[in-house]
Design goal:
This protein is mostly helical and about 180 residues long. The protein has 6 helices and no strands. It folds into 2 domains: about 35 residues; about 90 residues. The mean pLDDT is about 85.
Length: about 180
């Protein structure tokens, strides 16, 4: 038997509720408790391994979001509507989370301050840049009379607040 298929017997206790959940939950054709526990362990190990690289992490997050995305797209199809805002956010959120998750310090450096300040500045800069790109693309949606959102007046309702904030920033900048 090679290493990948070698089994080790373990023993443990779980609550009655957890057992009932495990037995009722459909897991890729797994029927017995042992099959389901092996499947869960494999899934858990792969899940944590896949969170180490950006693209693998992004794939995992997109997979987790897929049921909600499918529901949203189904509703959009039924209603004959689309929202650029929702689409942008459904892309922005997993991309940003993938970046944050994969920026963890290597295990060997945890607890040490070596280069932490520089690293924090790099992370902040990247997150700021990603956020500005999102803000700019959202503001572009407000250029047309009716925004490309489910509620065509969504942008107009908030645009005056944004203009006021930008004006205050401009005044502050000129005051320096």
């Amino acid at each position: 038997m090679n290493e990948s298929t070698k089994s080790i017997t373990i023993s443990g206790r779980i609550s009655e509720g957890d057992h009932q959940f495990l037995m009722e939950f459909p897991l890729a054709g797994k029927v017995t408790v042992s099959e389901k526990l092996r499947h869960i362990c494999t899934f858990f190990r792969q899940y944590h391994t896949n969170l180490e690289g950006y693209s693998a992490c992004l794939e995992q997050l997109n997979m987790a979001l897929r049921p909600a995305l499918n529901d949203i797209k189904e509703m959009e199809n039924e209603e004959g509507v689309n929202s650029e805002l929702v689409t942008k956010l459904l892309n922005f959120v997993p991309e940003t989370l993938s970046y944050i998750i994969t920026q963890r310090k290597p295990t060997k450096n945890r607890g040490r301050a070596s280069g932490s300040q520089k690293r924090l500045i790099e992370i902040e800069d990247r997150l700021f840049h990603q956020t500005l790109v999102l803000i700019e693309s959202i503001l572009r949606m407000a250029l047309t009379q009716k925004s490309p959102t489910y509620n065509p007046n969504l942008m107009n309702d908030r645009l005056s607040n944004i203009q006021e904030l930008v004006g205050m920033m401009d005044v502050k900048k000129r005051g320096k």
